[in-house]
Design brief:
By secondary structure, the protein is α+β, with helices and mostly antiparallel strands. It has a domain of 152 residues: Class II aldolase/adducin N-terminal domain (L-fuculose-1-phosphate Aldolase, 3-Layer(aba) Sandwich), CATH 3.40.225. 34% of the residues lie in helices and 17% in strands. It has six helices and ten strands; from the N terminus they run αββββαβαβββαββαα. The strands form two sheets. The chain has an eight-stranded mixed β-sheet with strand order 4-3-2-1-5-10-9-8, sandwiched between helices. A two-stranded antiparallel sheet has the order 6-7. Helix 4 links the parallel strand 8 and strand 9. Helix 2 runs parallel beside helix 4 and helix 3 crosses helix 5. The protein is globular, with a radius of gyration of 17 Å. The mean pLDDT is 95.
Length: 228
């Protein structure tokens, strides 16, 4: 069986996503990549997360060809493949319809730096360059299309997260643990932003530059964790 460990992670974190209330019904999808093999394991289409087992997870190459598995892959497989092709450091992708993040996707408003936990979603810390501190919104495209995948990756740019207009959110990370943690942090941030609309103080790009610098040494090993 190809990518047995990655398939197990997809099944496990799918259940965690559902338990955290990030994916109503069978919405959303996730994947884990093995870059040496040029393959990724992705959740199956339309299956309840609590029912997904290792053998239900499909393995694809970056062009979308099935390498192993009998289940139909997620309708958003092209979205995952595009992130792996364009973002060489991404080894996991999580896409959800989390309530507060999707609220801002429906409003077509970016997530802003109302809390410094947004830092891991932003382009990497660079002492020579200050970037805008937002999670941007990709223009609307029909779900499950190559056009959606291209718009998402293009809008995401050098960051690790992007809202999909009238749809949801996509995040990527160096591991499924990192991507899932970022997803949780951004849903928390989105709830704060929504509840404080009109009155929230937004941290400046300079302030976020300092926060991003601090995140490079946060946790038990440099660059190895997110949190606040």
């Amino acid at each position: 069986m190809l990518l047995e460990n990655e398939r197990q992670q997809v099944a496990e974190y799918g259940r965690r996503m559902q338990a955290a209330g990030l994916c109503p019904g069978t919405s959303g999808n996730l994947s884990v990549c093995d870059r040496e093999k040029g393959l990724f394991a992705v959740s199956p289409s339309g299956m309840a997360y609590e029912e997904i087992r290792l053998e239900d997870v499909t393995v694809l190459d970056f062009a979308g060809n099935v390498a192993d598995g009998t289940r139909k892959p997620s309708s958003e497989w092209a979205l995952h493949a595009a992130f792996y092709r364009e973002k060489q450091n991404a080894c996991a992708v999580v896409h959800t319809h989390a309530l507060y993040c999707t609220t801002f996707a429906v409003l077509r408003q970016p997530l802003r730096a109302v809390h410094y936990c947004i830092a891991p979603a932003l382009p990497a810390y660079d002492p020579e360059r200050i970037t805008e501190s937002i999670v941007p919104v990709a223009p609307y495209q029909t779900f499950g299309t190559v056009e959606l995948a291209e718009a998402a990756v293009r809008t995401c740019g050098e960051g690790n997260a992007v809202l999909l207009a009238n749809h949801g959110i996509v995040v990527c990370g160096k591991s499924i643990k990192a991507a899932f943690s970022l997803m949780q942090d951004l849903e928390y941030l989105a709830q704060l932003q929504y509840q404080a609309q009109g009155g929230a103080y937004v941290l400046s790009d300079d302030q976020m530059q300092e926060a991003k610098k601090r995140f490079t040494t946060y946790g038990q090993k440099p660059g190895g964790s997110s949190g606040y």
